[in-house]
Amino acid sequence: MGSSVSFFCGPLDNKKLQDYATSLGLYLVSTHINEEVSSDPSLGPYCYLSLVPKSMVHPFGNPPVRVSSALDPALGFLRAYFQKPYLVLGHIQWNNDVPTLADKTKPYYKKLVKWIRKEWEKNGYFYIGNEAKSLITEGAERVNFLPS
Fold first, then answer.
1. Angle formed by the axes of helices 99-119 and 11-23, to 10°?
2. According to the 3-state scheme, what is the secondary structure of 53-93?
3. What helix, strand, coil percent values describe the chain, rounded to 5?
4. DSSP 8-state symbol, 42
5. How far is it, in rounded angstroms, from Cα 80 to Cα 129?
6. Residue 89 and residue 79 in contact, taking contact as beta carbons nearer than 8 Å
7. CA dist., res. 100 & res. 41, Å (int)
8. Bridge partners for 78 per DSSP
């Protein structure tokens, strides 16, 4: 089951979070080994915060191109983003289905959650980044996903 932390953040908030994650030694890794993580979260918000670089993950499937936190030490990372007029929810997920991997990723998850709690304001079940607060004041609507 594991644990997760959810948040709304603007582009600058997201950059600060990603910068902090990489300062811990984590790598942004795509869910597919043959793809790069887009710098624009709206073009593919889900990726991993991996303890190992892309060159060291264990892809699977036929052909073996998919990446999973069940095979490598990684945290699920649904990057929050702003697409006017919507702030789209993001989260970081720690998975404990594979105990040996969970033991490796838990300290990183705890550090990320601690950073989020320190830097951003709690609002109900979510945290709101500083830029996101300004966007909400200017009329941005919080959503779980973009309306179709």
1. 130
2. CHHHCCCECCCCCECCCCCCCEEEEECCEEECCEEECEEEE
3. 30, 30, 40
4. G
5. 10
6. no
7. 30
8. 46, 91
As given in the structure block, the two tokens for residue 134 are 């300004």
- Burial class for 114, CB neighbours closer than 10 Å (0-12, 13-18, 19+): exposed
The pLDDT tens digits for 27-84 are 999 999 999 999 999 998 899 999 999 999 999 999 999 999 999 999 999 999 999 9
Which tokens belong to 107? 């300290």
Q: Tell me which residue has tokens 């582009």.
A: 11
Q: Which residues of 18-57 are buried (b: 16+ CB within 10 A; e: fewer)?
A: beebeeeebbbbbbebeeebeeebeeebebbbbbbebeeb
